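Replying to the earlier thread about multi-chain prediction with a worked example.

Input:
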Amino acid sequence: MEMYSKAETLALRQKHIGPSCKVFFAKDPIKIVRAHGQYMFDENGEKYLDCINNVAHVGHSHPEVVKAAVKQMELLNTNSRFLHDNLVQYAKRLTATLPEKLSVCYFVNSGSEANDLALRLARQYSGHYDVVTLDHAYHGHVTSLIDISPYKFNQLGKEAKKEFVHVAPSPDIYRGKYREDHEDPAGAYADNVRNIIEKAQKNGHKIAAFIAESMQSCGGQIIPPAGYFQKVAQFVHKAGGVFIADEVQVGFGRVGKNFWAFQLQGEDFVPDIVTMGKPIGNGHPMSCVVTTREIAEAFGASGLEYFNTFGGNPVSCAIGLAVLDIIEQEDLQGNATHVGNYLFGLLKEQQEKHSLVGDVRGAGLFIGVDLVKDQIRRTPATAEAQHIIYKLKERKILLSADGPYRNVLKFKPPMCFSMEDAKFVVEQIDELLTDLEEATQIRAKNSLPTNTQSKRKLPTGGSSQLESNNENISPINGTICRHENGFSGESHTVPCKRIRT
Amino acid sequence: MEMYSKAETLALRQKHIGPSCKVFFAKDPIKIVRAHGQYMFDENGEKYLDCINNVAHVGHSHPEVVKAAVKQMELLNTNSRFLHDNLVQYAKRLTATLPEKLSVCYFVNSGSEANDLALRLARQYSGHYDVVTLDHAYHGHVTSLIDISPYKFNQLGKEAKKEFVHVAPSPDIYRGKYREDHEDPAGAYADNVRNIIEKAQKNGHKIAAFIAESMQSCGGQIIPPAGYFQKVAQFVHKAGGVFIADEVQVGFGRVGKNFWAFQLQGEDFVPDIVTMGKPIGNGHPMSCVVTTREIAEAFGASGLEYFNTFGGNPVSCAIGLAVLDIIEQEDLQGNATHVGNYLFGLLKEQQEKHSLVGDVRGAGLFIGVDLVKDQIRRTPATAEAQHIIYKLKERKILLSADGPYRNVLKFKPPMCFSMEDAKFVVEQIDELLTDLEEATQIRAKNSLPTNTQSKRKLPTGGSSQLESNNENISPINGTICRHENGFSGESHTVPCKRIRT
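Result:
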């Protein structure tokens, strides 16, 4: 099956692929040759449990997706300047999953193209230019989106923030300004947005849009408190702007209870624009922007045609339709609720058991485990998170850590993830946390020789060694002292922030 | 095979697809249900000869492309953070088609993503921001590219041009400032670029890049005179910027003689960045940026990871490899030369015969026929071009007209286009031109009643009726008087500008 040995593949990659394109586990990357369901297999046939691939939404290499693709590829694959039933049928099916006013689609090829187009729609509709974005947000890799992604531009120095970009605090009730003990964190965070808008307006700025992932993914698996989006939408509308819900990472039933993550905010909330991406085609390059008739008409009124060469082609639409069918037929939304709740419960038990687990939060099969060195100060346990990720890889489990401190274990597996998978991965994490806590305590007492062969050895230089084990690397704001014993010893009293699904 | 009647498809499209997304032949769009080779079939089984789909490069629904896609889809489709042989093998094969220094690839999903990334590379490498672009250029639909596409931003009013954008004249030796009778049009157009750069620098601007399609497509099938790119590259390099060759429309052997259209400029010319798109995957959403090690390293030095979720996935790479194989195995580059030369010759005969044909230019299977109302003044025959396109559609031939005056018939068919196809389409054009010329003369003499049933009737309101029959609609600078007989009567003396392939 292999054309090259792993070493040759790596050498060719170093020669011909841009060095900015990182591999997982840079020191010892994985070569994957096949996958099915929630499992991936390397060149030696070793099986990995995939806890991170939200793109392979209905499971890797799903036969029904392949069948739909082949059937259409054999017939026709052309652009949307010709009429085709797949395009309109898919638009009809997709909009049927959304609130009624979200009825007009633009088919594009990636989450980045979708978010860029959302900005164009917002700017044309509002006649304004400025954007309010959340801290730690990531919305894509094209120029216009790097500009509104603090996750990215913060790495380029303080001057990288453009004047038209206004950064609101992430509505993080574990680590942010207003926490779980605040009486109205949704209102408080929304008031921040209002203040930011008012300040911008005083300086002559005009707001085109507020954009946020319905749940922040790279930003650290942040679940905005319910009611936050409603209030923000009020303020943004008052300023003449629109609300863009970025569902690129979290849409298509992942949250279990609802098909779209923004719906967790309540039935009274409807964004003006929704962008989709990763899971939409189970890996096929496609994505979509859905908006209101009013915004679409305003965009059309400029007279400028919008043409996307590959967007909405019959093959992409056939695949999109197959994905919707499979989610329904295999009740993957139900599975996300069922297995997600189970996994969440198991992780909450870990929180009870291990001081390193500061917070467990999530909805359906989108869960974050926030590791801390100190339950009171909530000092991010970055090196420990990276250590766990690395050790899990040795145990053939693929998990990642993200967030501004890279300390949040990030679950977003294919939606066919099973109870057994959940049990297995948490058992492994339990063992690793136990080892790590013991090793840390031993080390704190200086009773462990630095050259010990013990598998309980703390990660040395773990952070730099493992830094490629992240979708995107954020700078670490806090200084992490690896010789410090971060345990507070006190049991945590953080309330469960699981959204009931 | 149909889910909906054509009327239902159209109604659903109007309901659910953004009104900015246009169809071909808006008054009576075509519903296509299958295609193979250079032929497309509508819902009634009517066969259309496709002269415009440069995306279906190796032929619609090519079985070897489908086979490669299925084989890989059944195995694995995941992101490029895992090692995979397809990625490196494809990068190796693709860079082997390019001059040696172009050795580093970034795989993305569309021509727009490719050109946006090219700008990011150029800006990071140069530390500059400004861009020199050609008049009438179109480089893509994302925000950053609308900004550098006069074809688009000119439609938004004079203020739409950003300060960092500098527009150089298109090196059009038929209709531009320096024409076929100029002793050194390449040098003269390049000097324009130098002057623009120097003026910008005097005003404190710093040039990051010069970007141009190797041959302008939407801009009117413009073939830059050989030597132009070399000189421009000197001036851009002197200013600290880079040369980006946009091969999204014209690459992959279409020009016959060479695999890349920039190579027509001469072996001594090598761009710093090449972007690819449309034909690369025969319709599969994929594309690529190739650059030098030096630029790639500079981009990497920012520390910012570049991650593209779908870019370079094993399925896209398998398809890309299949397309390269087919081009080679079926000698499509040879066919582009062979059939392209034949088609060009036939069209030159039309130029001898018909006063409406002002210019025929092209290379391989990329040919433009510039229609004029007046051979001396070269007044664009816009309505006539639209009429011909519409009449060809009735004869089941798909052709389009583009350029700033929408008067250039644009040939860019699948590369399997045959001698018979060429003969057939030119015969039809000959008939239509004859009809049109006769009708125009008759009408000029006021001898034809306006309500005549004659098929020789001039298009009435043709321009607005047919305006969707274009990839993108540009404003028409010249006023077109439909009652004027534009014939000069003189035979043209325009030298043949066919690039020998």
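The first strand of chain B starts at residue 32 and ends at 36.

Feel free to reuse this layout for your own posts.
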